[in-house]
Write a structure and sequence with these properties.
Radius of gyration: 41 Å
Number of helices: 23
Strand content: 15-25%
Helix content: 40-55%
Strand order of the largest sheet: 16-17-19-20-21-22-23-24
Oligomer: single chain
Shape: elongated
Structural class: alpha/beta
Length: about 625
Amino acid sequence: MKPVTTFLRILVVVAVAEVLVTGIFWALNIPRGMIAVMTDTVLLTVIGGSLIYLWVVKPVGQELRARVEAIDAAGEMIVITDRNGVVEYVNPAFARTTGYTPAEIIGRKLSLLKSGSHDQAFFRSLWETISIPRVWSGEMINRRKDGTLYPEEQTITPVTDEKGRVIRFVAIKRDITERKKTEQAIQHMAYYDALTGLPNRTMLYNHLLNAIRADAGEGKPLALLLADIDRFKEINDTLGHDRGDEILKQVGRRLREAMFERDIVARPGGDEFSVLLLNMASSKDIDVAIQKILKALDLPFMIENLPIRVEASIGVALYPDHAQAAEILFRRADIAMHNSKRAGISSTVYEPAQDKHSPQHLALMGELHYAIEHNELLLFYQPKISLKTRHIVGVEALVRWKHPHRGMIPPDQFILPAEQTGLIHPLTRWVLAAGMRQCKAWRDVGMELTVSVNLSARNLLDPKLPAQVTEQLQAAGVNPDWMRLEITESAIMSDPAHALDVLTRLHEMGIRLSIDDFGIGYSSLVYLQKLPVDTVKIDKSFVINMTKSQNDAVIVRSTIDLAHNLGLKVIAEGVESEEIWNQLSALGCDAAQGYYMARPMPADDLTRWLHESPWGLSPSTVNPLPDRHLT
């Protein structure tokens, strides 16, 4: 009875699953037009639906069964449809992935899985390909039974009869959700900053490049703002890099919340953040953006209940005014940012004169080198007046360039570029030499004036500076006590340890040292006590408005009190009215500079002024600004 039972079971299988088996064995490359069904011991072959022969071939049956089991066990989804896309067979992987059982999908079209993510053109192209017939491979988004979407990669192979007509399709499909997640993670890493989640430099560059390409030369303005966090190295060194990273994350969040949705806020790297202003209505949009950035940083950042104040230096470059290429616009925004940082101001718009790589800049620097060697420069001197005696106590030497063809060139057009190119070193040596010669000339006729010369950050980083100053003092026959060197706070704080070393060596030579523009830098009170200086100069931005602004008046008074408590003298810059003079005098300020008393003037004019002005020479030769003796 067993053979009969087996035979009947085969007939039932043939009757019920002929279509299914047909597709499977077509996929297994069984000869065209032949359908095979097997049990453990019997192979039944049907051609055109008619039973032809039946015999027992156990080894062959086992091989075919192994192939069917392999299809069922496959991790990829295998689907067989008729020529109209009606499902005839699905393997278990299909059910596991889509949630549809074979009973739910067989006899229905695969359009049941449509997610709505692809348009009609997509499916029209697919059907045109497989109907030719050709194999189609690609990716699509489908929908599971529970409604969730998933990406899949699939290959659809047409199956043809002996006349080349398509009779069914075999699709091998793979759920690529995890691969897509990995790709998205890699893409996110490539285009977004891992710390803040903001676009990185590459993504920002792409946004800028696309905006410029979209403009197509029409000249619609856009602006690139580059903001660098001031003193961030000090924050990292003091609080640790973990807390520094937390500040960067908070800065990123505040900037993103502060700007308009259309603005691109990015973190190119390090302690820099960028804002790309698209679709600008006017240049006022730049001022608005700058104020938003500054306001976003105004409130302290709380790090483990410790309030940390953060400030930034902002550089601005405009398309198409400053550059019409993305890479150049980036570089010029960076130049403007560094100029802002050097000047100690919140923001700077790019100017060609500041760019050491521009043709005009290179030409100007070449001419400056010639001017230094051929004495085309000259010094102007601005008096420093004692508020106690109302007489001059010293002068500040300010370099000027009288170009033989261009006339007088403003200092801001050549001093900053000189710092960027290294010409600041020969320029400073020239100023020191000329100032020392004039100081000696005045001293020789009994005018006991100190002469002040400004040093840049690059000068302070030059270990040869003290030795060079010594040689110049000896060559000019000048007592070191007659000279004063002025250094800005920002120059000192660019490399505090190195600056302290150089300043200490200069002080040990007997040269007086002064902190210029005090109040706009970042030197702490603790560090200020370590510096071998005897004078601080209050920046004119506070002095000019002190009679109108209560905040500025408080800053000036506090600076004077602080300096006196540390044994320092105080000079106020920017005194332009009698009212300011009187207020400074009431606060106990030691000396002042400003247009109210005298403008900068050449040495010959100053010599006459010394004898004619009521602010001129005092009958006494005692200098009311003596050295501070440090212990």
